[in-house]
Design goal:
By secondary structure, the chain is of the alpha+beta class. It has one domain: Gcn5-related N-acetyltransferase (GNAT) (Aminopeptidase, 3-Layer(aba) Sandwich). The chain is 27% helix and 37% strand. The chain contains four helices and seven strands; from the N terminus they run E-H-H-E-E-E-H-E-H-E-E. Strands 1-2-3-4-5-7-6 form a seven-stranded mixed beta sheet, with helices on both faces.
Length: 164
Amino acid sequence: MTTPTTELSQLQFYPMTPADLEQVMAIEQQAYQIPWTQRIFSDCLKTDYACCLMRQAEDLLAYGVMSVAVGEAHILNICVQPRYQGQQLGYHLMLHLIKLAKKHGAKTMFLEVRPSNRAACALYEKLGFNEVGLRKNYYPAEPTHYSTKNQREDARILALELAL
């Protein structure tokens, strides 16, 4: 199967609505071993978090969820549909979220990332994020063939100073 390509000039961003959650959940379940639930997304929408979609024509390519309060933005979830990964879409989605954070008066952007997610770590470093801490045993992880116990994975805490 070939990877579909995207034309960056045709990317469009939209606010996420409850009507989008079925499509979002399909991607979330494809992309993550331990996906968010639909209720988490619904709660984010109800709380007026910045929830956005990246589309090309009618195709949902990626989405992001961000909270902004008291001069800080926090990326809670960013996901590119697996068949579109590797085409710089995560980079463009993050640029959009950075722009939104600035528009809402954020001076610093934070996020957590699994150290094992090397592609995401490289993306955030390319964008200028710096590690500011580590949350031990933050993420749930699937049991391995070495252990049937529930495993946990640390989270790198990254920050980016936003120039207004």
